[in-house]
Amino acid sequence: MAPSQRIIIDTDPGIDDVFAILLALSAKAEELEVVLISVTFGNVEVRSCLRNIVAIFQVLEKELKWRRENGKPEGFEGMTKYKPLVAVGANGPLHEQLLMADYFHGPDGLAGIHESHPHLSPKDTWQKLFERPPPDTVISEVVDDQELAAEQSSFRPSLVPAHQEILRVLRENEADTVTVVAIGPLTNLALAAAEDTETFLRVREVVTMGGAIDLCGNVTPVAEFNVFADSVAAARIYALTSANPSSTMPPTPTHVDPSSVLPPYPTTLSRPLKLTLFPLDITELHTLTRGLFNTLTRPLIQLPSPSPLATWLTAFMQPMFTKIESLHHTSTNSSYQTASSGDSNDSNSASLSLHDPLCIYYILTHSSAKWMRSAQSPEDIRVDTTGQWTRGMTVVDRRRSRKRRGSEGARSYDLGDWLGSNSGNRVVRMVGGPRQGEEAFGREMLERDIPYIRTLGFPYVRSSDSDLDCPESLGSSAHAIEAVRPTVIALVSAQRQ
Ligand SMILES: [Ca+2]
């Protein structure tokens, strides 16, 4: 049966990226095909991000072997049935200085796991899979080598730059059949859109994690990391949602080599881009606490033959939770931390915001009536690329002024032409989802990755029944083993305001 959805994941792993990719690969074959994973710089530099992608696949190979040997359902049909392509992309922003989030994710993007657990990390030979051959190499030999190496693997390495691989996938598939889920800086997408705009617009939808609308930013008071890390790229992608992209295109940078500046889009385009945005406002409402993570995974790593996946996740999640705790103690306004029960000494309350996995969950459950857009959607959300203190800010018009009908162009009372009838962007902004609040989504995410968690009979806590219903893919028996109803109080919103 053909998958109901096909996606490209553009990613910079990164801890929550890892959970997003696991969630996508854990889908049933008929639910989802991950056609391509295109890698970008972001949380860490691009080669480290790529190594983490390779590590995911190698750990999953070990995990599936372990599941077979232990009589567990294998799962991860997104890997075993489709064998995704992996392509390497941008190693820095279009024009800005490189900013990474290694202060949070660690220098390798996964809290130092490659040093602390080298037996769970790819051997250095993985790099050869992505190396370009010397010009005089016989192509057939390279292909043979690639296929030989990849034969043992669960992904297919690409030698084509990620943005060109994105374009190839969109070109070779029917329009409106492939969705791009972008969970890092938008550099790869901006390069693709600039190189062949009409082919890029064949995408069904771009779903992206980024921005902060009514919340503070997480790298500056107003900017979220993915948008800030390449604000020009983000501005160019957002501009494609406009009936008149030139009205919101970023100004041409003056401090760079003009030959490095991407060209404007063609003046006439066949249609606007459908862009669905998951800003911090919604992603921070979806968390995974250390208490829940430990409760679900600890029994799996205490077995005589422990689960490789649970072991690997634990190896970077424990230092990550410790980092989150330290951020909580030193700052009351970090977007990455959540306090529960009001007790900062409760180590189980440290929680990771599941920014990126939420975008994949939207793909998997998009038919749920509980997904909510903002009342204004599609709304005019623009990216500032030049402000001294506001670069990377996602700006909305809060003036509540009426749009001018049938008129275009800035006015003295409307600089930036926010009120013109065809100017401005048209972004769909998500504000609510079916698993919103506390730990509901974190639990389901782990249950999808490790489905036999549900059948092992480990008691675990859940926060509330009242806001939940079982999604299409989970039966009501999924939660039959819950034992304790806790009083978990998420303070995310309070910390942000
Ligand atoms: Ca990311």
From TrEMBL:
Family, as annotated: Belongs to the IUNH family.
Protein's name in the database: Inosine/uridine-preferring nucleoside hydrolase domain-containing protein
Species lineage: Eukaryota, Fungi, Dikarya, Ascomycota, Pezizomycotina
Gene Ontology cellular component terms for the protein in this record: cytosol
Pfam families: IU_nuc_hydro
Domain of life: Eukaryota
Species this chain originates from: Endocarpon pusillum (strain Z07020 / HMAS-L-300199) (Lichen-forming fungus)
UniProt keyword Hydrolase present: yes
Domain Inosine/uridine-preferring nucleoside hydrolase: 7-404
Keyword Kinase in record: no
InterPro entries per the UniProt record, alphabetical: Inosine/uridine_hydrolase_dom (IPR001910), IUNH (IPR023186), Ribo_hydro-like (IPR036452)
Annotated GO MF terms: purine nucleosidase activity
Keyword annotations of the record: Glycosidase, Hydrolase
Gene Ontology terms: biological process: purine nucleoside catabolic process
